[in-house]
Amino acid sequence: MSRLLPLALLLLPAACGGETQSAAGGPWTGRNMLANPGFEQGRVGWSYRDQSPHWGDFRVVDSPVRSGQGAAQLRLHHGPTLPRRPVKVYGVVQQLTPERVPESVGGYYRVDHWDKSSEAIDLYIQLVAVVWLEAEAGEAPANQQIRYYLAGLDEPPFLLRNARVEFVAKGAPVLGEWQRFEVPLRADFQRLWGGDPQGLSKIDLLFEARWDNMPPRSSVRADVYFDDLFAGEAPGAPPLRRGRV
Q1: What is the average pLDDT across 30-51?
Q2: In sequence order, what are the beta bridge partners of 126?
């Protein structure tokens, strides 16, 4: 059964500007708002939540890659003899300051291992869009989120008061193949939150692999990669959701 958690604010460092990047299945036709979307410049433009004990770092590798010379690797390895970590998140994060919510967000991910010792463990891949709103004087910043489950789940592991959820695909991921994903973020935000955000300040995009609800003495082994990511206008073709929903 899903559990309702209190609102959690995500404080993330700002990133660099954008550049144009093509993706397979036809090039993205709009300007890419993401800096270094294919990780060709290593970690430039990308960060992770290094101030959180629940987050782990990412690596930029030269194999496997979807295109070019780089991809982000999220290495989720935890053994039964290690201290228990009920929650652990690995991801790459970039912060944007657009005038509007991007029409489309997408890219590619790949999974080369996907093992967990207990069915109680929620092991999954997700895209999280965090839309920050301008705060009134003396008030804390607020955000509205959409959490897109890309693979690994059949139901949400938890719910947040400030988040809506969407399934791109359900069940275990395909192994050893690059998988394309693309979501119509602006249309989804309007549908799920009742319109465009009022007082948009910035947007954090988080491309994650994580586990939740890990019992004691459990283990996980998963290797997840992201490459050729995109955020922006995509007028050439309607956004798609590809997966086994």
Answers
A1: 91
A2: 149, 208
pTM (2 d.p.): 0.84
Cα dihedral value 15, 61, 183, 168, nearest 10: -130
Reported as a pLDDT band with limits 50, 70 and 90, residue 31 is confident
Half-sphere exposure of 201 (CA within 13 A, CB side): 11
The Cα 134–Cα 142 span in angstroms is 8
Q: Are 203 and 96 a contacting pair, CB within 8 Å?
A: yes
**Structural domains of the chain, ranges and CATH numbers in brackets:** 11-232 (2.60.120.260)
Whether the per-residue pLDDT at 38 is higher than 60: the answer is yes
What does the angle CA 80 – CA 84 – CA 88 come to, to the nearest 5 degrees? 105
Cα–Cα distance, 18 to 31 (Å, whole number): 8
Q: Compute the C-alpha angle 221/223/226, nearest 5°.
A: 155
b/e 209-245 (16+ beta carbons within 10 angstroms → b) = bbbbebeeebbbebbbbbbbbbbbbbeeeebebebee
What are 183's two structure tokens? 């979501």
Among 160, 210, 167, residue whose Cα is nearest residue 188: 167
User: How far are the Cα atoms of 39, 40, 107, 183 from residue 21, in angstroms, in the given order?
Assistant: 11, 11, 10, 17
Helix (H), strand (E) at residue 187: helix 185-193
